[in-house]
């Protein structure tokens, strides 16, 4: 009995009734973060990149707290939790930027107080990345991505981060199954008219991963350049890639 | 592990998960 009891309590999908996982993920969504660019710095590329790296560092702290709310994540071993986050952290950051930018016209809403158009991105040396992220924004905008789908996709990106050296692949698979099932349940209930919608959403994930890899590569070269101050967590995760 | 000490510490210390 105790074994069964424990299994029922820790089986993530035991709560996947009436989209409870989706509701839970909505509730776990981190609060807004403001960029607060330093008014004392001259308006140049260094200021833009410093602002973005500082914002990313603070968002990362929140995203780590968020990950712990994913049903089943905290039952993974600490090394496995670390490996998933080390692989998916940039995808999670980017998906949040993309979702915030859905209502903006060809601009990236890094934060409510930090919106970047192509001209500003070019000045910061981020034009290529800006264009790549906007491709994702347009894709999700044309699909009418909903908040429920966004939070679930973000959980799928973490669970599906394809990290090497996972200790307990079965536990990670359970996490993947749970969030995948949550998305399918949600689409069945809310988008019955389009039976392929869950698949269409999942098919956006390769572009997210590709864009995140570009972003990591770009910020790694900025790090090597050494002109932009970066906080320790951001550096630690850049080094993990 | 030493290399990733902040991530390690945050995972151990950040907000406890809701008991599901």
Helix and strand layout, with pairings?
The complex is a heterodimer of chains A (241) and B (20).
Chain A: H1 2-10, H2 20-28, H3 45-67, H4 78-100, E1 108-111, E2 114-116, H5 118-123, H6 127-143, H7 147-159, H8 169-190, H9 197-202, H10 205-225, H11 232-240
Antiparallel strand pairs in A: 1-2
Chain B: H1 5-13
Could you explain the architecture of this structure?
The complex is a heterodimer of chains A (241) and B (20). Helix content of chain A is 66%, strand content 3%. Chain A is built from eleven helices and two strands, in the order H-H-H-H-E-E-H-H-H-H-H-H-H. A two-stranded antiparallel sheet of chain A has the order 1-2. In chain A, helix 3 crosses helix 4, helix 4 runs antiparallel to helix 7 and helix 7 packs antiparallel against helix 8. Chain B contains one helix and no strands. Chain B has one helix spanning 5-13. Chain B is elongated and about 15 Å long. Chain B starts with a helix and ends in a 7-residue tail after the last helix. Residues 16-20 of chain B have low confidence and may be disordered. The chains are: A mainly alpha (241), B mainly alpha (20). Chain A binds chain B through residues 9, 12, 15, 24, 28, 61, 64-65, 67-69, 71, 73-74, 78-79, 81-82, 85-86, 232-233, 236-237, 239-240, and chain B through 1, 3-8, 10-12, 14-18, 20.
Q: What's the story with the biggest beta sheet of chain A? A: 2 strands, antiparallel
Q: Mean pLDDT score of chain B, rounded?
A: 69
Uncertain residue ranges of chain A: 1-10
Query: Gap between N and C termini of chain A, in Å?
Result: 43 Å
* Element order of chain A: H for helix, E for strand: HHHHEEHHHHHHH
Number of helices of chain B: 1
| Assembly annotation | heterodimer
């Amino acid at each position: 009995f105790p074994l069964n009891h424990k299994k029922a309590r820790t089986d993530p999908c035991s709560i996947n009734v009436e989209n409870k996982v989706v509701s839970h993920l909505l509730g776990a969504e981190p609060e807004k973060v403001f960029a607060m660019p330093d008014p004392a710095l001259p308006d140049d590329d260094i200021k833009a990149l410093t602002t973005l790296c500082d914002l990313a560092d603070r968002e990362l702290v929140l995203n780590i707290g968020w990950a712990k709310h994913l049903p089943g994540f905290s039952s993974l071993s600490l090394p496995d939790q670390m490996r998933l986050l080390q692989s998916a952290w940039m995808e999670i950051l980017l998906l949040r930027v993309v979702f915030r930018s859905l209502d903006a016209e060809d601009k990236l809403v890094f934060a409510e107080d930090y919106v970047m158009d192509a001209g500003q991105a070019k000045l910061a040396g981020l034009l290529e990345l800006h264009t790549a992220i906007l491709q994702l924004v347009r894709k999700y905008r044309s699909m009418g991505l909903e908040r429920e789908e966004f939070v679930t996709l973000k959980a799928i990106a973490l669970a599906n981060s394809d990290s090497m050296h996972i200790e307990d692949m079965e536990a990670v698979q359970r996490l993947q199954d749970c969030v995948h099932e949550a998305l399918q349940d949600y689409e069945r209930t809310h988008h019955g008219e389009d039976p392929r919608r869950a698949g269409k959403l999942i098919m956006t994930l390769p572009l997210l991963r590709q864009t995140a890899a570009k972003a990591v590569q770009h910020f790694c070269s900025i790090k090597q350049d050494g002109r932009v101050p970066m906080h320790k967590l951001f550096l630690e995760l850049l080094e993990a890639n | 592990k030493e290399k990733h000490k902040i991530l390690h510490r945050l995972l151990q210390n950040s907000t406890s998960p809701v008991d599901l």
